[in-house]
Amino acid sequence: MDELDLIVVGTGSAGTAAATRCANAGWRVAIVDELPYGGTCPLRGCDPKKVLVGAAELVDWAQRMKGSGVKGQLQIDWAELMAFKRTFTEPVPEERESSLREAGVATYHGAARFADKTTIAVGEERLRARYVLLAAGQRPAPLGLPGEEYLIDSTGFLDLASLPKRVAFIGGGYIAFEFAHLAARAGATPVIFQRGPRVLVGFEPSLVDAIVDIGTAVGIDVRVNAEVKGVEKRDGGFVVRGTVGGAELAHECDLVVQAAGRVPNLDGLALDVAGVERTKKGVAVNEYFQSKSNPAVYAVGDCADGGGLPLTPTAAEEGDVAAKNLLDGNKHAIDFSGLASIVYTIPSLGMTGLTEQQARDKGLRFTVRAGDTTQWYSSRRIRARVACYRILIEEKSGAILGAHILGPHTEEVINVFALAIRAKVPAADLGTVLFGYPTGSSDISEMLQA
After folding, report:
1. pTM score, two decimals?
2. What residues have CB less than 8 Å from 59, skipping those under 6 apart?
3. If you ran DSSP here, which 8-state letter would residue 290 be given?
4. Would you state the torsion angle of the CA atoms of residues 315, 320, 324, 329, taken in this order, to the nearest 10 degrees?
5. Which domains does the chain have, with CATH numbers?
6. Tens place of pLDDT per residue across the chain (450 aa)
7. Do 266 and 136 meet the contact criterion of CB atoms below 8 Å apart?
8. Beta strands 106-109 and 112-116, pairing class
9. 209 contact partners, CB below 8 Å, separation of at least 6
10. Are 80 and 68 in contact, with CB atoms under 8 Å apart?
11. Which of 314, 420, 422, 443 has CA 20 to 30 A from 159's CA?
12. Cα distances (angstroms) measured from residue 112 to each of 58, 135, 425
C-alpha cells in the first residue's frame, strides 16, 4: 500500500477542484466516489433542473402573452424534454473521470470509509495518504415515516419517464417550489405540504408570499402547518396522511416527492474511526476547512460545517481554497459576503446579503428601498405576473446590506447586488451606473432612489 499525498472523497465541484489543483502541483492524488462521477450539480441538481425549468418558462411566457400578440397553445412534451436533459447529463461521468485522469488523479469507484485516521477503504482496497479531503456532498434527509419507501427524491423526479397528474411534495423549500412550478407548467396539479407556518424559510417573507400567490394562480396548492404522518399505497396511487392545521389530512396523489431537506452524506464514512468530529451541518472544520479534531482531514462543500451556503460556486471555491491550504499551509480563508441564492420558480426569487430580520438581529440601522415593478417596462413588455424588490441600505455608511428580488430578471440582477456587497460598492455609487437599456439591470438605478 503506497502512501499517497491526498485522498479525496467525492467527485463534485468541491472534490474535483481540490484534487485537480493538488495533482497539478505534483502531488499523488486519488479520488473516490460511489456514485457516477460529477456530483450533484451537473447530474442530479442545478444543471438538469434548469434545463427543465427553461422549457416551463417558455410555456409560461407564451401563456402570459396571449392577447398581446401570441396565439396558440404551447405544451411540454415530457419525454422529449427528458431526452434533451440527458444530452447534458449523460456525458458528464466519463468526461469528469477522463479530466481527472488527465490531471494525474487515480480514480476509484465504490463506497469509501475510514480504516484509520488517514487510510480509506474502498471495498477490499486500502488507500493511505498524508491527508484526506472529504467532499461527499449531501443526501435526502430520512423522514422516518411509515411508507417512506414509496417516496422518490429529487434525483428520481429528474429521471421520471412521464409526469403523473397529481404530485405531492413533502417539504416547502427550494426543491418543492422549483419542481412544483415546473410540474404545473407541464400540466400536473402539485400540492406542497410544509410542516411549519412558513415556506422558503430564509427568504424575505413578503416576496415569499408573492411567489405563493403566483403558485396558487397557476394551480399549485401550498398547505402550511401540515404534519405528514405516513404514506399509503392504494389503487395504483398513494395517500398522504397526517394533519393540516389540526384537521385530518388524507390526500390522494399519483406521486410523492421527498423535498424536506438534505443532510451531510457522512454516515457511511466511519468518521469515528478517524476521530473526525461532526455537527448537524457536517464535519466540524476551522476557517481553513481543516477538521477540528483530526488535522490530517479536511472537509469542503455541502458535507462540511464551513460557514458557506450549500451552493455549487461555494463548494468549488471551498475545494480550491482547501487545496491551497494543503499545498501552502493554512493561510487561506473565504469571504462569504455577497453570496447569491436563487429559487428557480417562475419567476425566480433571489437574495444576497442579509434579510431584514438578520440585520435587526445584528443591531444595524438601515432603510429599506421597496417597490412593485410589475408595471415597469422591463416586466410589462413580457407580461410578468409579478415583480418586486426590497433593498436594505445601512443608514450611516450607505452600504448595501441585502437585496431581495422577485421577477423575470432576478437571476442576473441579484448577481449585480452580490457584486456590490462583496466589493463594498455603496448604494449611491451603484445607482449612478449607466446600465445597458432596456435590461433588467437598468432597473437598479431606480430601485436605489430614495
Report:
1. 0.95
2. 74, 75, 76, 185, 186
3. B
4. 10
5. 3-139+263-328 (3.50.50.60), 148-260 (3.50.50.60), 340-447 (3.30.390.30)
6. 568 999 999 999 999 999 999 999 999 999 999 999 999 999 999 999 999 999 999 999 999 999 999 999 999 999 999 999 999 999 999 999 999 999 999 999 999 999 999 999 999 999 999 999 999 999 999 999 999 999 999 999 999 999 999 999 999 999 999 999 999 999 999 999 999 999 999 999 999 999 999 999 999 999 999 999 999 999 889 999 999 998 999 999 999 999 999 999 999 999 999 999 999 999 999 999 999 999 999 999 999 999 888 888 899 999 999 999 999 999 999 999 999 999 999 999 999 999 999 999 999 999 999 999 999 999 999 999 999 999 999 999 999 999 999 999 999 999 999 999 999 999 999 999 999 999 999 999 999 985
7. yes
8. unpaired
9. none
10. no
11. 314
12. 42, 11, 45
152: its cell numbers: 422518490
Pairing relationship of beta strands 304-305 and 282-284 according to DSSP bridges: parallel
73, burial (CB in 10 Å: exposed 0-12, middle 13-18, buried 19+): exposed
Q: Which residue has the cell 424536506?
A: 260
Q: Residue-wise over 33-65: b if at least 16 C-beta within 10 A, else e?
A: bbbbbbbbbbbbbbbbbebbbebbbebbbbebe
3-state DSSP assignment of residue 433: coil
